[in-house]
Amino acid sequence: MQEIKVELTQNPKQKPADESKLGFGKIFTDHMYIMEYNPEKGWHNPRVEPYHAISLEPSAMVFHYGQEMFEGMKAYKTEDGRILLFRPDKNIERANNSNRRLCIPEIPAEDFLNGLKKLVEVDQDWIPTQPGTSLYIRPFVIATDPFLGVRPSDTYLFMIILSPSGAYYESGLDPVKIWIEDDYVRAVRGGIGEAKTGGNYVASLKAQVKAHDEGYSQVLWLDGVERKYIEEVGAMNIFFKINGKVVTPVLNGSILPGVTRASCIDLCRHWGLEVEERRISVDELVAAAKDGSLEECWGSGTAAVISPVGHLRFEDSVMQIGGGGIGPVSQKLYDTVTGIQTGKLEDTLGWTVRVK
Amino acid sequence: MQEIKVELTQNPKQKPADESKLGFGKIFTDHMYIMEYNPEKGWHNPRVEPYHAISLEPSAMVFHYGQEMFEGMKAYKTEDGRILLFRPDKNIERANNSNRRLCIPEIPAEDFLNGLKKLVEVDQDWIPTQPGTSLYIRPFVIATDPFLGVRPSDTYLFMIILSPSGAYYESGLDPVKIWIEDDYVRAVRGGIGEAKTGGNYVASLKAQVKAHDEGYSQVLWLDGVERKYIEEVGAMNIFFKINGKVVTPVLNGSILPGVTRASCIDLCRHWGLEVEERRISVDELVAAAKDGSLEECWGSGTAAVISPVGHLRFEDSVMQIGGGGIGPVSQKLYDTVTGIQTGKLEDTLGWTVRVK
Ligand SMILES: Cc1ncc(COP(=O)(O)O)c(C=O)c1O
Ligand SMILES: Cc1ncc(COP(=O)(O)O)c(C=O)c1O
User: A72 in ligand 1 pocket by Cβ < 6 Å?
Assistant: First the structure.
């Protein structure tokens, strides 16, 4: 494990006074973590520095060929003042899976975790404490060779930045309306869908804008081959409860393997619910909505943790689920996962990692 | 049309002395063009500045969500000292098609062309003149909002940079060996394949590395749905001559509509050759190679203009085409397109645009 140099800021920023106005992803803390890569030294020079702009050649490969990887996770402050990360090993493992697909050199897991902890420790006073708030953590890698040929870059920057984030739901869980997209495609098997990389997100924007215009908050993607099987939501995985069973799309190579998804599956099984990871066609959904066997639907992701889905729209049919309200499994998952994350519930599964 | 401010460099760089050592995309000229976008002013403040690094927040959206568009074209100096662009209107139109797909605001065509011409004029002494050399032009847009939510950025930078480029073929046309990929997928209909954007290129790296390791210079992609139909090469479109007819994959939404492709089709038709834009299955190719009706194969793209393909490999079968040499149509296309580009042949089709 490499030693991290720490340079503290001389000009600390004003911390946001009102935690109800934090929003998401727009305020950044006083410091950031950086590590560099080149073929001679590998990943080297890990350091915590005052948060600052980065300077890159206009020819830097990241601007042209999309060689970029990111992760998303959160830190929470418990009522008794501990700082907890939620399953960071899962994010680090996924980051390196993404890196491999994108021809980015893998990051030693211990340096990654160590950097994460050090940065959060340095900026711990930025962690908000109101219910539902957290410190959002954004690790990312960008390709920096000043070169326009198409090939993997030789040099990279790995950075971590932190953003205090407001409660996703202002007043408790709130069901969302979701648009099932049958025109645009986000990702396809054999492509980069299971990697967390910019190309998948830019591909999603156009449909997202369309869905918003129609009054839907997110897009649910169908597979790119048959345009028939449910994949995932813009920034969440998706679950259904059909006829008493929990069902979620199987990881097929074009879906992001969510950390929250894995945790939902574990918890549901732990509670004795039957969980199926399998293909789910949109026709099956429409039929289940019609005959009443579609009991619940929710999204799972770091941002909202659990997002109950009240309405699904596919082409001209609008499906109301569970009367448009919050189902019992969604609520229990939300309470349990956030309970563990914030230290309110005992972490019997060993999912949290303490900073310091 | 907006007026362009010009600030000339006080520290001109040393120009490369040996034009045979230019390579591709690694040397940049003294100046660059920049224009900014925000919702209030639209695209504004176009300027030519000394080439310099750009400074961005680590949270700039381009690093996270891949909202980036680029183009590629070339300027040539004729023997009598004129400077020519090749069909820049086509690149500008394609740039704005890409922009629409990527939710990037369109760039006024006249400001784009004007910026292009002004920059090339300012750096005209950088245009190499040896046979096969050119000034490569890279226009690109990046999303700059310092924000981690997934949505189209509000602010952007549009830049153009220039790179003197060496001859693609050191000593005349040289056939390449191409690997038909049946495992990884580059793009899929409904996705971003027909946009010129980073996500498509990062998706291609892994197969490209594999093909190189096997001794093949580029990858030929199959469609992402049936994994059966020929799409395009890493940075070229592909043409076949089968039984006397020129055949190229039809633009289906996942293929980049190449400017060189369009020019090849026009020229071939002009010469009285029959040209079909249609689906071509890899099985058809293998069969045509076996029975001798596959007479020629070439790639078309700005970098190499025309790349004769001597060998195609699909799974375990290696197809040698035209004895592995250069076919007559490939040679004639190469001579004609480069002849028009460099002003050696009369531009009867009105394809070139003079700078100044
Ligand atoms: C496309 C996509 N799917 C699913 C998820 C959920 O993953 P996780 O639970 O790890 O946050 C995310 C994001 O966070 C995502 O961006
Ligand atoms: C994926 C891809 N296909 C085709 C082409 C050929 O297009 P053009 O002839 O406009 O250069 C390019 C690039 O230049 C490309 O990147």
Answer: yes
Q: What is the pTM for the complete model shown?
A: 0.97
Q: What is the pLDDT of residue A172?
A: 73
> A137 in ligand 1 pocket by Cβ < 6 Å?
no
Structure tokens at B202: 């990062």
The count of C-alpha atoms lying within 13 angstroms of the C-alpha of B6, restricted to the half-sphere facing its C-beta, is: 14
Q: Name residue, tokens 């690109």.
A: B140
The overall average pLDDT reported for chain B is: 96
Closest CB to A225 among B142, B183, B225: B225
* Residue appearing with tokens 């813009």: A234
- pLDDT number for residue A90: 98
Of all residues in chain B, the percent with pLDDT exceeding 90 is 96
Please state the domain count of chain B.
2
* Boundary (domain end) residue, out of B165, B198, B216: B165
B65 backbone dihedrals φ, ψ, rounded to 5°: -115, 15
Does A203 sit within 8 Å of B192, measured CB to CB?
yes
Q: Give the residues across from A306 on adjacent strands.
A: A300
Closest CA to B116 of B48, B65, B57: B48
Pair A189, A318 in one domain: yes
Q: How many CB pairs under 8 A join A and B?
A: 229
> pLDDT below 70 — which residues of chain A?
170-171
Is the CB of B333 within 6 Å of ligand 2? no
Whole-number Å distance between alpha carbons of B264 and B266: 5
Q: What pLDDT digit, counting tens, does each position of A184-208 carry?
A: 999 999 999 999 999 999 999 999 9
Those residues of chain B that have pLDDT short of 70 are 170-171
Domain range holding A157? 5-165
Nearest-Cα residue of chain A relative to residue B183 = A190
Q: Which bin fits B343, alpha (ψ -120 to 50), beta or left (φ > 0)?
A: left
Q: Could you tell me if residue A250 is inside a domain?
A: yes
Same domain membership, residue B16 and residue B49: yes
Q: Which residues contact A312 (CB under 8 A, 6 or more apart)?
A: A177, A178, A180, A220, A285, A289, A297, A318, A319, A321
How far apart CA A63 and CA B62 sit, in angstroms, is: 7
What is the rounded distance in angstroms from the CA atom of residue B185 to the CA atom of residue B206?
10
In a domain, B67, yes or no: yes
Helix (H, G, I), strand (E, B) or coil at B99: helix
What CA–CA distance (Å, rounded) separates B72 from B95?
10
Could you identify the atom of ligand 2 that is nearest to the CA of residue B73? 11
SS3 content of chain A, % helix, strand, coil (to 5): 25, 35, 40
Atom of ligand 1 nearest to the CA of A90: 10
**Complex ipTM value:** 0.97
Question: B18 CB contacts (<8 Å, ≥6 apart)?
Answer: none
For chain A, list the strands marked E by DSSP.
Answer: 5-6, 31-38, 42-50, 54-56, 68-70, 73-77, 83-86, 134-143, 156-165, 176-181, 218-222, 230-233, 237-242, 245-249, 275-278, 294-301, 305-314, 317-320, 352-354
